[in-house]
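Weekly sync, protein design subgroup
Attendees: M.S., D.O., the rotation student, P.L. (late)

Item 1: inverse folding check
M.S. brought a backbone from last month's batch and wanted to see whether the design step gives back something sensible before we order anything. D.O. pointed out we never logged the input encoding, so this time it goes straight into the notes. Structure tokens as presented (147 positions):
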């Protein structure tokens, strides 16, 4: 019976690594393919060494601060998309998720004021633009800000 420990690559799929510095008869004896003398023939050079010029990690600036890591990313819903709900209904992030207007019920939702709203709705969201809040209230609805 075949088992995982018996699996091996197909014949010819792998190649043995060349063993350098193992005598003249191996083909890579003597200087082991490194030529004669010089810095690159020795073992002390590091891959990041740049020949004595100022290294890249010291040339690059590491100053400054960016607040993008800590910024809140809102899921955007426009007022025109709220017109699909029945009049006098309560619209919450859970209902927006069920309707497919937002992708997650756990990320904050912001309502923006593009389009028109003709129905009175109670809209619950984490944030509202001033025009969106004005449109919802002018249509006879109300705005509730979630924490």
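Designed sequence read out in the meeting:
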């Amino acid at each position: 019976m075949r088992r995982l420990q018996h699996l091996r690559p197909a014949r010819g799929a792998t190649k043995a690594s060349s063993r350098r510095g193992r005598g003249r008869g191996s083909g890579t004896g003597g200087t082991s393919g490194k030529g004669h003398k010089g810095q690159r023939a020795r073992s002390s050079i590091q891959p990041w060494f740049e020949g004595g010029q100022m290294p890249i990690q010291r040339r690059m600036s590491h100053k400054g601060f960016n607040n993008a890591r800590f910024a809140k990313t809102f899921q955007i819903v426009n007022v025109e998309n709220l017109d699909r709900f029945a009049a006098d209904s309560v619209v919450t992030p859970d209902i927006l998720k069920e309707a497919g207007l937002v992708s997650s019920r756990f990320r904050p939702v912001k309502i923006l004021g593009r389009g028109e709203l003709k129905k009175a709705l109670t809209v619950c969201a984490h944030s509202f633009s001033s025009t969106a809040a004005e449109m919802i209230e002018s249509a006879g609805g109300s705005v509730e800000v979630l924490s």
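Discussion: Helices lie at 56-59, 93-98, 130-138. The beta strands are 75-78, 90-91, 109-112, 122-125, 127-128, 142-145.
Action: P.L. to compare against the previous round before Friday.
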